[in-house]
């Protein structure tokens, strides 16, 4: 069993580093992403956010007009994806990337991050739980401990 990672020991500004953990995303039992060549971002009070290389995505994405801004990484671009079983069902704005990240995060240029749903996300075979709330995109696994930002009463942490 991997050692526990306490989110209150993660740094601020966030740490970006390569991870060799096996990441998979499945939707309706269809594999839509698979890699052991990703990055994770570790930030105080947040579970890891994973960034997958474009070549690990097995279904086409379309760019969304939605955008947001991260104080650390810069302007985010959002993506849409069609359900592998029903192309008329499109999930919008649950995948994001940074086309021009800030200098400290240049390594994740054009890598993609997925919210943990509506699909199932896995880290080393373990199904993740989404970070509380609907704003942050962290993935919670059994090796994560400590109070996590995103739920009621955590704004301003």
| Cα-based radius of gyration, to the nearest Å | 15 Å
Strand segment count: 15
Q: Percentage of helical residues?
A: under 10%
Count, helices = 0
Structural class: mainly beta
Going across the major beta sheet, what is the strand order? 4-3-11-12
Order of helices and strands: EEEEEEEEEEEEEEE
* Biggest sheet architecture: 4 strands, antiparallel
Mean pLDDT: 95
Quaternary form = single chain
- Strand fraction equals over 45%
How many angstroms separate the termini?
30 Å
List the defining traits of the structure above.
mainly beta, 4-stranded antiparallel sheet, 157 residues
Structure overview:
The protein is mainly beta and 157 residues long. Helices cover 0% and strands 46% of the residues. The chain is built from no helices and 15 strands. The strands form five sheets. A four-stranded antiparallel β-sheet has the order 4-3-11-12, with no helix packed on it. It has a four-stranded antiparallel β-sheet with strand order 7-8-9-10, with no helix packed on it. A three-stranded antiparallel β-sheet has the order 2-5-6, with no helix packed on it. The radius of gyration is 15 Å and the shape is globular. The model has no long low-confidence stretch (mean pLDDT 95).
């Amino acid at each position: 069993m991997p050692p526990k990672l306490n989110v209150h020991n993660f740094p601020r500004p966030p740490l970006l580093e390569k991870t060799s953990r096996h990441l998979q995303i499945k939707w309706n039992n269809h594999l839509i992403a698979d890699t052991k060549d990703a990055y994770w971002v570790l930030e105080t009070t947040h579970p890891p956010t994973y960034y997958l290389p474009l070549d690990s995505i097995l279904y086409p994405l379309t760019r969304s007009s939605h955008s947001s801004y991260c104080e650390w990484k810069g302007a985010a671009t959002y993506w849409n994806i069609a359900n592998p079983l029903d192309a008329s069902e499109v999930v919008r704005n649950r995948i994001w990337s940074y086309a021009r990240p800030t200098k400290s995060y240049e390594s994740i240029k054009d890598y993609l991050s997925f919210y943990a749903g509506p699909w199932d996300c896995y880290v080393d075979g373990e199904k993740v739980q989404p970070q509380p709330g609907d704003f942050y995109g962290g993935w919670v696994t059994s090796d994560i401990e400590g109070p996590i930002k995103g739920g009621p009463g955590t704004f301003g942490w």
